[in-house]
Amino acid sequence: MGKTATASSPGFDAVPVSSPGPLSEAQIRFFHDEGYLSIPPIATEAEVAELREVYQRMFARRAGWEDGNYLDFAGPDDAEPSLPQILMPSQYEPALMTSRVHAQCLAMARQLLGPEAEFHFDHAMTKPAQGGAPTPWHQDKAFYTRKTTHRTVTFWIPLQPVAAEGGCLRFIPRSHLGPLLQHRHLGGDGRVHGLEALGLDDSQAVSCPLEAGGATVHHHMTLHGAATNVSHGERWAYAMGFGIRGTTPIVGREYAWNRVTRTAREARFQNSLVGRNRVSYRLRALLVQWGLL
Predict the structure, then answer these.
(1) Which end of the chain is less packed: N or C, by CB atoms within 10 Å?
(2) What is the pTM (predicted TM-score) of this model?
(3) What does the alpha-carbon distance between residue 51 and residue 123 come to, in Å, rounded to a whole number?
């Protein structure tokens, strides 16, 4: 059945939840031990309202479609999306990079990873009401490509209260210690962007309901997912990833599941490139598909 993370849940008593400021030593220790952390609101009501306005603008105009950054996480991207998402939304709404929320998350990332931690990506996610598809169990590292050198933590911030029935995030404690599980594209369909982990045991999974503007933080190896949104409201969430670049790659060869990627968003991204960049990207994609990288 799994567990729900609250201030009084076993295992959470050592994690103070009274202050949204810099992380305490206990919170940092909990994160490194368990691979995730749930914290109280880091965004004010006004900041959440502003983020919701940004989301309405971006998703209404399908920001990033031509670049391959607007996509359906759970479908083939050729019909009405079941889980619409936008990769790198700060490219289309630069104010996201200068917000107080961004600054707070960067400060906490540096507490967790060290002073050299820097912004790597952001991600705008929606899940429709009363039937928004589940987000399958996965590890973020499964999406990493060959020669990736950074190790990241991701902050996930809901723009409305979110409980289990609304699709709050769930984590498998200590899964960040490894191994990286085998993954595949959802349903074994290489046209779908989303990945799902295979052969996992989720009996010890912990659900993390949050207030609007609250946050979870997880390690790039932590298994996480979310259930179907059966609530009466859409579930919007904003994610930011921060990391430290190492001197050696943490992915030596492309993962087998990424060799069969044939998504429409990948094609749109490739078509958005020009000149040598397009030729180089296409050549790399072919070498990956042939198993040479």
Answers:
(1) N
(2) 0.89
(3) 13
